[in-house]
Amino acid sequence: MEHLPAAAPGATGAAVAVRQGGRELVLVGGTTGRHDPRPVTGRTRFELGSLTKAFTGLLLAEMADRAEVDLHDPVRHHLPPGAAPRLGRGVTLASLATHTSGLPRLPPGLWRAALPHWRTNPYRDFGAGDFAAALRRTRPEPPGRYRYSNFGVALLGQALANAADLPYERLLADRVLRPIGLPDTGFSASGQVTGHLRGRPLPPWEVPGLPAAGGLRSSASDLLRYLTAHLSPPSTSPLGRACREVARPRAQAGDHEVGLVWNLRCRSGRELLFHSGGTRGCTAFAAFSPSTATALLALVNAGPTVGSRFVQRSYEAAWALVERAGTARPAEAVTTVIPSSPPRTR
């Protein structure tokens, strides 16, 4: 696992956590930033980017279990009248969570708002009003084909918030973050690492118009607890049943399947559910395998670039753990500091 930070050029800090059977290991190294050199710990917060979507998918499953929404509800049933005049009945909550709704990757008009801050904070000036205006003018493709969409999952979060009559951020905290016990996870930028792109420090990531698609921050400790909740969830609570439901395959996406947001691949009778996330300044990867009681997450404070292999190496590490599952011995949780800091861009 120690080799993973080297696949993220420009990072100053990293955290990698693994669970297999009864054994947990958290590896941390480096500092929170060049100009803010605090040591990275298991509770250091990183920007999650699109890994936020997995939390939104779990929220959907939890609310569906409570019969507050139905996975097959047309999303327009949970929007104000006239909010999305061109969205037909085929654009359902489930299709938004599986990226099969036909919505484009980004809301119309976002590019114009993004250009002044393209290299640092492209979503910063695209707020709730801009999102509403984009939704009114959106005409999706016919539903059914996989088409990854930040816009779609952001809309899903808004629909769930409307159904519960609560802001999305509070709803997620009430139904997912607090019940699982994730004190480091939320939308505030306080206490987080400084993100870097090609070695250059960046301001905190802001996505005011699409929080459900990419606004969360979290720590290695919290994310390991979050993934562990998916490994053998109880069937006695809506959240436990929801953790099982998100892992069920629902749509085909090229060479893999999709559950509720999570990607799914199988090898030799073993499965791996996975998702990555990237902001301009951080990269995140998470994966779990219920049948082998395995989970892995990896976080660095460097944004994805063309040359970065961090997500691919993390994915390969997750499969290596799954393939050798059953050999790990039960042990107490351990936190280890990686001796050397992640490499910096020269």
List the helices and strands and how they pair.
Layout lengths: L12 E8 L2 E8 L14 E3 L4 H14 L27 H5 L12 H5 L13 H10 L12 H15 L3 H13 L15 E2 L2 E2 L9 H4 L2 E3 H9 L9 H8 L5 E3 L2 E3 L4 E5 L2 E9 L4 E7 L4 E7 L9 H14 L10 E4 L9
Parallel strand pairs: 2-13
Antiparallel strand pairs: 1-2, 1-12, 3-6, 4-5, 7-8, 8-9, 9-10, 10-11, 11-12
Helix pairs in contact: 1-5, 1-6, 1-9
Brief summary:
With 346 residues, this protein is of the alpha+beta class. The chain is 28% helix and 18% strand.
Notes on the structure:
This is CubicO group peptidase, beta-lactamase class C family. InterPro entries: AmpC-like, Beta-lactam-related, Beta-lactam/transpept-like. It is a single chain. The chain is α+β, with helices and mostly antiparallel strands. The chain has helices at residues 52-65, 93-97, 110-114, 128-137, 150-164, 168-180, 211-214, 220-228, 238-245, 310-323, and strands at residues 13-20, 23-30, 45-47, 196-197, 200-201, 217-219, 251-253, 256-258, 263-267, 270-278, 283-289, 294-300, 334-337. It has a single domain (4-337), classed as Beta-lactamase (3-Layer(aba) Sandwich). Helix content is 28%, strand content 18%. Strands 7-8-9-10-11-12-1-2-13 form a 9-stranded mixed sheet, with helices on both faces. Strands 3-6 form a two-stranded antiparallel ribbon. Strands 4-5 form a two-stranded antiparallel ribbon. Helix 1 packs parallel to helix 5 (150-164), helix 1 (52-65) crosses helix 6 and helix 1 crosses helix 9.
Q: How many helices?
A: 10
User: What's the number of structural domains?
Assistant: 1
CATH topology: Beta-lactamase
Q: For this structure, what is the CATH homologous superfamily?
A: DD-peptidase/beta-lactamase superfamily
Instruction: Work out the helicity level.
Output: 25-40%
- Give the biggest beta sheet: 9 strands, mixed
C-alpha geometry: globular
Estimate the strand proportion: 15-25%
Q: Give the class from helix and strand content and strand pairing.
A: alpha+beta
Average residue-wise pLDDT: 92
Ends distance: 23 Å
